[in-house]
Design brief:
By secondary structure, the protein is mainly alpha-helical. It folds into 2 domains: 15-115 and 210-236, no CATH class; 126-198, no CATH class. Helix content is 77%, strand content 0%. The chain has helices spanning 15-18, 21-37, 43-60, 64-88, 91-114, 117-126, 131-161, 167-198, 215-235. Helix 2 (21-37) packs antiparallel against helix 5 (91-114), helix 2 packs parallel to helix 9 and helix 7 (131-161) crosses helix 8 (167-198). It is globular.
Length: 237
């Protein structure tokens, strides 16, 4: 399967990649909670979140092109969904909500690119996430790249057959490709379901257990939770 530049997991051997998956997952969730919970009068909290994400991205040494490639479709969906706010709110509210969503998306994309997905599943299991949610996450992750692979195949075939066309013609073609993409993804999904049934899938994803957390890592996790609570308490003071 052809994957976007760098693949789902981009190993650069950085300090961010060497961190324990449980710490990265906890830190990512904490940052998302801070971004989502920030009140409208605490824009500084979003600035701190953006600064932390920027520093983590720089330390991870993941190519910006790969992150932007993955952020592009999510950004489009966020902006389209945010348009509804303009009909009932103001530009300030639209920008504030969109910024929160973009920060969460950036955090999720960076975490997935810097952590093997098997380790993410193991970390979720260690943190007590319900098994059903772990299974949904695993299958959804796989399905997302299946859909993206189908889209890349169809777009490559289209560009080979129609190297140049007027903008309105291309828009009509893209709409037809979108309809065909839904059908092809549904067929690929059915094949995934048949493969799972053939392997007697019982609804739970298996994985190798992670090594126990060391004392230093446990203290860091506790400190991360404390900082999250402290920032939110300061914002709502």
């Amino acid at each position: 399967m052809r994957i976007p530049p760098g693949g789902p997991y981009i190993d650069t051997g950085s300090q961010v990649h060497a961190l324990d998956a449980r710490f990265k997952l906890t830190a990512a969730l904490s940052l998302m909670i801070v971004a989502i919970g920030a009140p409208t009068n605490a824009a500084w909290l979003l600035a701190i979140s953006a600064a932390l994400l920027g520093a983590s991205t720089a330390l991870s040494r993941i190519p910006a092109r790969s992150l932007l490639f993955r952020m592009a479709p999510i950004t489009g969906l966020i902006l389209i969904a945010g348009l509804g706010i303009l009909f009932e709110g103001t530009w300030d509210r639209f920008l504030f909500v969109s910024t929160k969503a973009l920060l969460c998306a950036w955090c999720g994309v960076l975490t997935s690119a810097a952590t093997p997905f098997g380790d993410v599943i193991g970390a979720m299991r260690c943190l007590g996430v319900p098994n059903t949610l772990i299974t949904i996450t695993g299958l959804g992750y796989r399905l997302a790249f299946v859909a993206l692979d189908e889209a890349l195949r169809m777009m490559s075939a289209y560009l080979c057959r129609v190297p140049s066309a007027r903008p309105l013609v291309r828009i009509r073609h893209v709409c037809r490709l979108g309809e065909a993409l839904i059908r092809r993804v549904m067929r690929r999904t059915e094949r995934m379901e048949w493969a799972l049934h053939a392997r007697a899938f019982d609804g739970s994803l298996r994985g190798l257990p992670l090594s126990p957390l060391r004392l230093r890592e446990r203290l860091i996790l506790v400190a991360t939770g404390g900082i999250t609570i402290g920032l939110l308490a300061l914002a709502y003071r």
